[in-house]
Amino acid sequence: MSITIKELPELERPYEKLELYGEKVLSNAELLAIIIKTGTKEETSVQLAQRLLKLNHTKTEDLSYLQSLTIEELMQIKGIGKVKAIQLKAVGELAVRMFQTSNYKKIIIKEPHDLARIVMSELKFEKNEKVKVVILNIKNEILKIKEIASGGTNFANVSMKDIMVEPIKMKAPKIILVHNHPSGDSTPSKQDIKYTEQLYEMAELLGIQLVDHLVIGNMNYTSIFSKMFS
Questions:
Q1: What is the rounded distance in angstroms from the CA atom of residue 204 to the CA atom of residue 198?
Q2: For 156-192, what is each residue's pLDDT tens digit?
């Protein structure tokens, strides 16, 4: 029979380690074990967490793959029932929201990275494409971030009219377009670049400046304008 958490030396138990030394000293498996709480007759919660971590096939320490697992996929792991699967999903969503900027208004966008750091933490987990228009004032301060499309959307099929409706309504002088690549590779496609060129021309006719178009990957991004005007 496998050793239980209670049978481990006190300083090797995740709860006690965190209380004594802080969360920074715990391994990923130990942190997950605290969320999982209990193991099975064969495994401790730490061992169960270690099996969960083995689902990461990227051979990196990046834990974002956990957020992409569905409740049903988590429940396929022996020892993880519906309650534990829901707890893991809830913690993953909290992690995403902790990195979101809740009050982005009045943030000034001086360069692509200023905007990328705001939207990247949210979009990197998405399995499907999302399209957002970031509406700016004359000083490049964010007035609003409007989601245009979500789900199984193919970016190339997004209507330019849908993108421009809100900026026109707000009489905004500038916009930045943002969309993600669920593959994690932020390299813009030929379609992305062609669409951006067409949107740039349309926006100009409407008296609105398209400042940039960012493609978001997994913790990386590409400015299409850097490709168009380099």
A1: 10
A2: 678 999 999 999 999 999 999 999 998 889 999 999 9
For the entire predicted model, the pTM comes to: 0.65
**Residue 21: Cβ-neighbour burial (10 angstroms; 0-12, 13-18, 19+):** exposed
Nearest to residue 184, comparing CAs of 54, 61, 62?
A: 62
Each residue of 39-83: pLDDT tens digit?
888 888 888 999 898 887 666 666 777 877 889 999 998 999 999
Nearest-angstrom CA–CA distance, 20 and 9: 14
* Alpha-carbon gap, residue 188 to 228, rounded angstroms: 11
CA 206 to chain centre: 32
Query: DSSP assignment of 144-176, as one string?
Result: EEEEEE-SS--GGGS-HHHHHHHHHHHT-SEEE
